[in-house]
Each structure stands twice: as C-alpha cells, then as structure tokens.
Amino acid sequence: MIGHVIAGQRGKVFLVSKVSPDHATASGIRQACAASLARLGTEYLDLYLLHWRGGVSDLSVVVDNFESLRAEGRIRRWGVSNFLVGDMEDLYRVRGGDGCATNQVRYNLKDRSIERNLLPWCEQHGLPIMAYSPLDMGGDLLRNTALVRIAERHQSSPAVIALAWTIRSGHIISIPESGSPAHVRQNASALSLRLTDLDLGELNRGFAT
C-alpha cells in the first residue's frame, strides 16, 4: 500500500523502515532491507532502524552493515528503536556507533520514563529522540482536563497540545498516526504552537503520577 501511495512522488516523503533483531546478522540485515525496498518499490530508505536490541550482543555487525547499506545508497541514515541507556552506551563503544541518527522510543504525557536518564543521555550526545505513541492510545490522555483546558486557551485541539508538548525542547521528533489529510494538517499545526510556562506547569500537575 505504501509503495502504491508514494509512486511518482518519492522525493516528497521521508520513508522509515525497521529490521527485526531476529534478522540482525550480516546476511539477514541485507536481505531484510532488500525485501523492504522491493515491497516499497523504492531504491532507498531515508532511515533504517534496528527495531529492538533483543538478543543482539554484537552491535558491530549491525553498525557495519548499516554503514555498508548507507555507502551503497540503499539507506540515507540509520538508527535504533527502544534502546535504553546501557544499550546506547554499548552502541557508542562500537566503531561507527556514534553515526546513529536517532533512538525511537515511547514518549507522551502519560509515559515520561525516558526523562529520568535516557533523554538526558541523548541530549548530552546530540542524539534526537523519535517519539512514538505521542498521544498514547488516544482516549484517556486526550480527555485529561488540563489538556482540554489548555487546548481551549490556544483555540486548538488536545491532540495538537499533546504533540506540541512532546517537541517542546527541539530535541524530539514526534510521529503520531494520521488517518486523513485533514488529520495530518492538524497534527502539523503543533510545529508552530508554543506552550507557555503556565501551560507546562498545568500539564505537569494534570499528568502527575
């Protein structure tokens, strides 16, 4: 489906795919990438991620193969997903490991666990976070009274406020799901929305655990 949608307009999209840790071998990574490219009908991926650390003990195999794919033009950048601080430290000890472009992890107003150590580590190393599930599952988070009140103040929606919160530092990329062009445009409005100190304080109290 994605391949069909992007046909003829590849340059307008930023295409991300992942490889499972089950395939994180020298031959497995290359085969998985080739299969993704074939299914998508494209010659390259903008970003290729290792989905989990899983049982991958030798990260040098991953880095070497990602770098080879990048040199061949099959991927533009590579990164990881769901890596903890210890995983990132292991990665950076590998030659070329600091070529990682991002760490994709769960982050939203209800789940701020990365703020304890992973987010500071990534900021210290200049590594952007890619936040998945920035709206959690949508329901309870978007009905939070503080979030609704702030959305009304900005004449916006709770979802846009929640997205603006995730990207407030400038070090985080937020990747919400979108079901329609109108939904995409609404999500994109979070890029220009600036939350005040008052807003942030209310959200901290409204989502206190």
Q: What do these coordinates show?
A:
There is one protein chain. 29% of the residues are buried. Helices cover 43% and strands 11% of the residues. The protein has a 6-stranded parallel beta sheet with strand order 1-2-3-4-5-6. The mean pLDDT is 96. By secondary structure, it is α/β, with parallel strands linked by helices. The chain is globular.
Which keywords apply here?
43% helix, 6-stranded parallel sheet, alpha/beta, 209 residues, globular
* Portion of residues within helices: 40-55%
Biggest sheet descriptor: 6 strands, parallel
Which range does the strand content fall in?
5-15%
**In angstroms, what separates the terminal alpha carbons?**
40 Å
Low-confidence blocks of residues: none
Reading the helices and strands in chain order gives HEHEHEHEHEHHHEHH
User: What is the quaternary state of this protein?
Assistant: single chain
Lateral strand order in the biggest sheet: 1-2-3-4-5-6
Number of helices: 10
Mean pLDDT: 96
Shape: globular
The value of Rg in angstroms is 19 Å
Structure class: alpha/beta
**Strand count:** 6
What's the helix and strand layout?
Blueprint: H1 2-6, E1 16-19, H2 26-40, E2 47-50, H3 59-71, E3 78-81, H4 85-93, E4 103-106, H5 118-124, E5 129-132, H6 139-142, H7 145-153, H8 158-166, E6 172-174, H9 181-188, H10 197-206
Parallel strand pairs: 1-2, 2-3, 3-4, 4-5, 5-6
